[in-house]
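Supplementary notes for students who missed Thursday's class. We covered one full example, reproduced here. Read the sequence, then the structure, then the short commentary at the end.
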Amino acid sequence: MICYRLRCQHDHQFEGWYKDSATFAMLQQKGLLACPECGDTEVQQALMAPAIAKSGVVAPQAERPAPPPEPGGQMPDMGKGISDQAVVALQKMRQAVEQNCENMKDQFAREALRIHHGEAPERGIYGSATEHEQDMLREEGVNVLALPWVRRADS
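Structure (token representation):
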């Protein structure tokens, strides 16, 4: 993981964590980075001072950024503990899902199985499923991904 200090055209500065520099470049090129303060998608890397420690000296804990959450770990409470930048990204993801997929609500698991077995037309769907239903879908070979459902950007 790599942490970049970023800046929007309105000179708001923030940081972001990325798998590698290529991932950052791809997200930047596609306009998927946004300022958490104003939503501006013209985001550039800001100048950063390198962290240089003397031999055997470790920077105090307060100066080191917190590492990103482990993949597959518990999702943080969406009301606190998650950066504005992450909320903006999750809001964009929610908007894309709502615009391009059909909401099956609590019938998601049933409809996903129907699609998987060729009994319903193949299409993007979303909805809710219990942990038991998600496990059952995975056992059947259905790719399922649970997404954190944050408030809409316009709310």
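Commentary. Strands lie at 2-8, 13-18, 43-45, 102-105, 125-127. The first helix runs from residue 21 to 29. If anything here is unclear, bring it to office hours.
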